[in-house]
Design brief:
This protein has helices at 5-11, 13-18, 58-63, 70-82, 89-95, 103-107, 114-127, 134-146, 159-163, 183-187, 190-203, 218-223, 226-239, 251-264, 278-287, 314-327, 331-359, 383-386, 388-404, 415-427, 437-443, 455-459; strands at residues 27-30, 42-43, 46-47, 52-55, 177-180, 207-208, 245-248, 274-277, 291-293, 303-306, 363-364, 409-412, 433-436, 447-449. Helix 16 runs antiparallel to helix 17. It contains 22 helices and 14 strands. The structure holds iron/sulfur cluster (2 copies).
């Protein structure tokens, strides 16, 4: 029997009471590694200060009041547990506009799992009888009816594959490897789905796209609609039970299958497959010198920067950190190992970007806030659906950061980040091209194969799974 939001909050009580309200989670470090131009760039929404510690929490930046910053939400959780506060629509309207970006948990030296706390708080709020906000009710209804929150018809989920000549991979029965496409790439950013599937084809991977795939449930785990999320999880676990390796192009789906599903599955049960993002495969093949890239005149000299999606970045980093802390016998010694593992993880997409710089001639330039300090794109946690203005203003702040380093192209590896950054880029006239790294490789025909990968290369586990 799955735990209720209130039971999860009770379990997190010790963590909640560990919060000393120091508000260090309010700030992130901005400035390295490229200090040129620091403090000179005025963003589209006013001057942006780039050096030193800057305000980090998008919800706090947007709404300003104490309760909206993370420390305020932890205080709300504490007051609910002590009985000093009850769930009301007013409380809901404070805890819902949070992107669950994890910036606060990454910054907290007390290692408080703030995203788990906020998600449990939201689930407990819904269970208490407070209605969801209207826009969340709508996506909840749509996913229950159609298995996706966009209102797309089930039979059109893989239309992009048929239109792009990739139809043979839909329900390809003899493949052990599957590509989980996700709702955003299936119904909105189909470029991501097409270019990922084409890249797999170019690499010679025998893969399948499962026709019974449904929404991964990410937005519903995040907003506290846990029953809906679990139903979707059970459908996916049934649909993918016969595959060995599951590849993703969406950071949110990858996080949900890898971190959420094992937590919500019956005790003692494990995922029947391994998971990894497509960028991990490409980085591995580069390191093994099996692939390189062709020079490209159009891209040569273009400044390219990279946005770390919160779901592949901080969420995995914090999860790895929590696992290692739990298993550690000597945290003093192990804290260095934790740091190294997180650094290694964040380097994976950068292996591809550095190789693109070397072979293709792009100029890879990091933004001022990267990795654990990276600013969120504003799309997650049910915020894009529920609070679109806040969501797009946050994306525009991130576009400002890309503008500040002179980026011609802003890359990321998540269709949901891609969509929000791209919309803000257009709406606020940031003047960049927004695209995925793998999309760039396929669309500009950059792949140059030195040695054709074998099936074992595709089945090699993620570095997350390697001790
Ligand atoms: S969550 Fe951590 S960093 Fe934030 S106020 Fe509490 S103890 Fe301080
Ligand atoms: S998860 Fe992100 S938006 Fe939410 S409180 Fe933490 S830093 Fe702010």
């Amino acid at each position: 029997m799955a735990k209720t939001g209130m039971e999860r909050l009770q379990e997190l009580k010790k963590e909640i009471f560990k919060c000393i309200h120091c508000k260090a989670c309010k700030f992130a470090y901005s400035g390295e590694p490229d200090r040129e131009g620091i403090g000179e760039y005025a963003g589209k929404q006013g001057t942006v200060l780039y050096e030193g510690m800057v305000d980090a929490c998008p919800a706090g930046i947007e709404y300003g009041w104490e309760a909206f910053w993370n420390a305020g939400k932890i205080w709300i959780a504490r007051s609910i547990l002590t009985g000093d506060l009850e769930f009301t629509e007013e409380v809901r309207d404070v805890i819902m506009p949070c992107i669950t970006c994890g910036q606060c948990s990454a910054q907290c030296d007390n290692k408080i799992p703030t995203v788990d706390i906020i998600e449990s708080l939201r689930a407990a709020c819904i269970e208490s009888g407070v209605p969801m906000i209207e826009k969340h009710e709508l996506v909840d209804r749509l996913v229950k009816e159609l298995n996706n929150p966009y209102g797309g018809k089930a039979e059109e989920r893989f239309k992009w594959a048929k239109d792009a000549g990739l139809g043979k991979y839909v329900d390809n029965k003899d493949a052990k490897i599957a590509y989980y496409v996700g709702c955003t790439a299936s119904y909105r950013q189909i470029e991501v789905a097409i270019t990922t599937a084409k890249l797999f084809e170019l690499l010679g991977m025998n893969f399948t796209i499962i026709g019974d795939e449904v929404c991964c449930g990410s937005p519903f785990f995040r907003i506290g609609a846990v029953d809906t999320a679990q139903e979707l999880m059970n459908k996916n676990l049934e649909a993918f039970k016969n595959v060995k390796m599951l590849y993703f192009s969406c950071a949110g789906c990858y996080r949900t299958f890898t971190i959420d599903y094992p937590k919500w599955m019956p005790e003692g049960e494990e995922l029947p497959f391994k998971t990894q993002h497509a960028f991990e495969l490409v980085a591995r093949l580069i390191q093994q010198e099996k692939i390189k890239f062709k020079p490209n005149k159009e891209l040569k000299g273009k400044v390219v920067t990279y946005h770390d999606p919160c779901h592949t970045g901080r969420h995995f980093a914090v999860d790895m950190e929590q696992d290692m802390i739990r298993e550690s016998k000597n945290l003093l010694i192990d804290s260095r190992k934790i740091k190294e593992k997180i650094e290694e993880w964040y380097e994976v997409p950068r292996i591809i970007l550095r190789k693109l710089a070397e072979d293709v001639g792009i100029v890879f330039k990091e933004m001022y806030r990267i990795k654990l300090d990276s600013m969120c794109c504003g799309a997650g946690g049910g915020v894009r659906a529920g609070y679109p203005e806040f969501s797009l203003r946050t994306a525009s702040l991130r576009c400002d950061e890309a503008n500040a380093v002179g980026a011609d192209i802003l890359t990321t590896e998540c269709p949901f980040c891609w969509r929000n950054l791209s919309d803000a880029n257009d709406m606020y006239n940031h003047g960049m091209k927004v695209m995925g790294i793998l999309q760039m490789i396929t669309e500009y025909n950059l792949l140059d194969m030195a040695e054709k990968p074998k099936e074992d290369d595709f089945l090699t586990p993620s570095i997350r799974d390697i001790e």
